[in-house]
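1st attempt posting a full record on here, be nice pls
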Amino acid sequence: RVQIAIANNGALIPETIQTQIFDPFFTTKPVGKGTGLGLFISHSIVQHHQGSLTVNSSADTGTEFVITLPVR
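the predicted structure (as tokens):
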């Protein structure tokens, strides 16, 4: 497997939202500002390739998205 991690040290993503961020049309933006499809599409593409896309977020370290894909 190969892993790609993308991280920042900004504000955390609340745990209640972490369970929804990969859902289609979920957004925290106001109406008319974004479709809520970006993470859903990214997650779907990674799953299509038998991989996983996860999020880790804490107030101490920020937020990290990890893509794991199999190597053939």
